[in-house]
C-alpha cells in the first residue's frame, strides 16, 4: 500500500484496534513492574529466637559440715536418711535429759539457683512418740555449742515441737522465716543444732518421769524423722 493512497475504513479500524492492544499490553507491563516495586518497598522480615531451659535446685545435708549428700528419704532408698550423731547416748536417756546433734544444710554443687528451706514435717514411731520434744537452733558453724556443756549459749530456737504440739503431727509450730541457702553449695551454709528432750522442756523432772512411765517401760526405741523442704527463690 502506498503511503499516499487513502486507507479504507476497514483498514483504519484494524489499525486502531492494533494500537489499542499494544497500549493495553504496554500498560500491563508497566503496571506489573509497578506492583513488584511496591511490594519490595513495603514488605520485609526480621527474625529473632531465644534458647530456654530450667535452672537446678537441690538441697543436701551434712553430718560433719564438710561432706554433703542428697538424703532424699526412705521413699527413694532405705539408707537415704541422715542418721544424726547425738552427743551422749540417745538410746539411754533419762527423763528430762536432752541430747544434741549437729546438722548442716547446703545445696548440691551443680545447683544454679538460690533458695530457702523450712522444716516441712516431723514424724515419729515408737513408745515415746508422744513424750519426746525437740528444739532446732540455727548456729554459726557446724556443731557450735551443740553439746550439753555449751547448750546455754545456743541462739534463739528456729523450730520447736513436742508433747503439746505432737511430735508426730505434720503441722509444726514455732517456725520462723525460712532459712536461706546459696547456689553451688557456697558458704554460708545453714548450720543447725537439733536438741531432743525425753519429756517436755518446760516440765519438771518428776512430771517427765511420770510421762515416760505412762508411755511404757521397757519400751521399743522411738525414731523421729525431720523433713526439710527447700524452694528456689530466683525469679
From TrEMBL:
Membrane-spanning parts: 23-42
Top-level lineage group: Bacteria
Keywords for this protein: Membrane, Transmembrane, Transmembrane helix
Protein name from the UniProt record: Ribosomally synthesized peptide with SipW-like signal peptide
Amino acid at each position: 500500500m502506498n503511503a499516499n493512497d487513502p486507507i479504507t475504513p476497514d483498514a483504519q479500524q484494524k489499525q486502531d484496534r492494533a494500537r489499542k492492544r499494544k497500549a493495553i499490553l504496554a500498560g500491563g507491563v508497566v503496571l506489573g513492574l509497578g506492583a513488584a516495586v511496591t511490594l519490595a518497598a513495603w514488605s520485609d522480615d526480621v527474625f529473632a529466637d531465644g534458647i530456654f531451659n530450667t535452672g537446678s535446685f537441690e538441697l543436701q545435708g551434712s553430718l560433719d559440715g564438710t561432706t554433703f549428700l542428697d538424703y532424699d528419704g526412705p521413699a527413694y532408698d532405705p539408707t537415704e536418711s541422715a542418721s544424726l550423731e547425738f552427743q551422749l547416748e540417745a538410746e539411754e536417756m533419762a527423763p528430762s535429759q536432752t541430747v544434741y546433734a549437729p546438722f548442716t544444710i547446703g545445696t548440691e554443687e551443680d545447683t544454679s539457683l538460690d533458695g530457702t528451706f523450712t522444716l516441712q514435717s516431723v514424724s515419729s514411731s515408737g513408745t515415746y512418740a508422744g513424750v519426746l520434744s525437740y528444739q532446732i537452733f540455727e548456729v554459726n558453724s557446724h556443731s557450735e555449742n551443740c553439746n550439753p556443756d555449751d547448750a546455754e549459749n545456743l541462739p534463739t530456737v528456729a523450730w520447736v515441737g513436742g508433747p503439746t504440739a505432737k511430735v508426730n503431727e505434720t503441722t509444726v509450730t514455732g517456725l520462723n522465716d525460712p532459712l536461706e541457702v546459696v547456689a553451688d553449695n557456697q558458704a554460708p551454709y545453714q548450720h543447725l543444732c537439733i536438741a531432743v528432750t525425753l519429756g517436755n522442756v518446760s516440765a519438771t523432772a518428776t512430771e517427765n518421769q511420770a510421762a515416760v512411765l505412762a508411755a511404757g517401760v521397757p519400751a521399743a526405741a522411738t525414731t523421729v524423722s525431720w523433713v526439710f523442704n527447700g524452694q528456689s527463690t530466683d525469679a
